[in-house]
Design goal:
The structure is a single chain. The chain has 9 helices and 15 strands. Helices cover about 25% and strands about 25% of the residues. The protein starts with 5 loop residues before the first helix and ends with a helix. A 4-stranded mixed β-sheet has the order 10-11-15-14. By secondary structure, the protein is α+β, with helices and mostly antiparallel strands.
């Protein structure tokens, strides 16, 4: 028996319902079953989860375990009589086949899905793109047509398990007859044996290939979007269908434009004179340059909208807008004549110069000091 607490093994609390315990066990069984997990400790974890489930799924065993810390009837006088525990041994009945049906090891199986990350330019995401990509994947062997056997031969039914992929081990214990089903050691759960292997795939039935796939990236796709290409994943086995290919889109940033949803944002500089007197400036968009009228007295941070100059809507009609933010640039290098002109402007506008504002700062200083 495992030294670990059975509730801890299954990852449930002591108040877990029968349904919670069953769900937890199925999750762990799928994760650690030797047919799907080849890690060194997978089989041990699978057995541990199975042992915990056998105890906690039985109300009498669970009660004994909760009271005495063991499911042994001799420790709590529970007594199991002559029960037959064969129902707990068949893991395939539990979750692979469902409804009491066993998984047929020779049945067609769908191939695994693949993921491919594609990096594209900013404008390629906006307007879409068609391109070819190379995908490494497994495909059915053309030489043996996926059977794994040498052409002209075929796999033979395993005589140990008679094609079921499972072996039954019967044990007579003090508590009754126990039937445990496990993966067939002769055919490794395949249900068949290949005596003469294909020289191309060496019995695997699949080979690694580089496949060229033509991809259409729709206009308006955004960073992080995922495209599904049906049937371009790993090849199936035993004549099963291929999986799907999922393409994850990564979009490079742009030096001038930024994107938020279907809208495009940009910043353009204005001189003090342009902002004060108004002007007509040229603005780059995704497709062309357009004229934008700047009204007199425009303040820095003002946004102007260019309708329909944004990103094509991926799911719908039309396009987003382009939002133009204007930023008034303060001159950093003025000659004496320019400074004098600005002083004259300030006087005529009724503005206070630095010298005139000294008295204001003095009053603020006194206020902070509490004078």
């Amino acid at each position: 028996m495992s030294d670990r607490d059975f509730y801890e093994v299954l990852g449930v609390g002591k108040d877990a319902s029968e349904d919670d315990i069953k769900k937890a066990y199925r999750r762990l069984a799928r994760q650690y079953h030797p047919d799907v997990n080849k890690a060194a400790d997978a089989e041990e974890k699978f057995k541990e989860a199975k042992e915990a489930y056998e105890v906690l799924s039985d109300s009498q065993k669970r009660a004994n375990y909760d009271r005495f810390g063991t499911a042994d009837p001799s420790q709590g006088g529970g007594g199991f009589g002559g029960q037959d525990f064969s129902g707990f041994g068949d893991i395939f009945d539990m979750f692979f086949g469902g409804g009491g049906q066993r998984r047929n090891p020779n049945a067609p199986q769908r191939g695994a899905d693949l993921q491919y990350t594609m990096t594209i330019e900013f404008k390629e995401a906006v307007f879409g793109k068609e391109m070819d990509i190379q995908i490494p994947r497994t495909e059915s062997c053309d030489n043996c047509h996926g059977s794994g056997a040498k052409p002209g031969t075929r796999p033979e039914t395993c005589q140990t398990c008679r094609g079921t992929g499972q072996q039954e081990v019967v044990q007579n214990t003090a508590f009754g007859r126990m039937v445990n089903r496990r993966v067939c050691s002769t055919c490794n759960g395949q249900g068949s044996i290949i005596k003469e292997k294909c020289s191309t795939c060496h019995g695997a039935g699949k080979v690694k290939k580089q496949r060229k796939i033509h991809v259409k990236i729709p206009a308006g796709v955004d960073d992080g979007a995922q495209l599904r290409v049906s049937g371009e994943g790993e090849g199936g086995t035993k004549g099963g269908p291929s999986g799907d290919l999922y393409i994850v889109i990564r979009v490079k940033s742009h030096d001038f434009f930024e994107r938020e949803g279907d809208d495009i944002f940009c910043e353009v500089p204005l001189t003090f004179t342009q902002a004060a007197l108004g002007d007509e400036i040229e603005i780059p968009t995704l497709t062309e340059k357009v004229k934008l009228k700047i009204p007199a007295g425009t303040q820095t941070g003002t946004y102007f909208r260019l309708k329909g100059k944004g990103v094509p809507r991926l799911r719908g009609y039309g396009q987003g807008d382009q939002q133009v933010k204007v930023v008034v640039v303060t001159p950093t290098s003025l000659d004496e004549q320019q400074k004098e002109l600005l002083r004259d402007f300030a006087k005529q506008s009724g503005e206070h110069t630095h010298e005139q504002n000294k008295s204001i700062f003095e009053r603020m200083k006194k206020a902070f000091l509490g004078d």
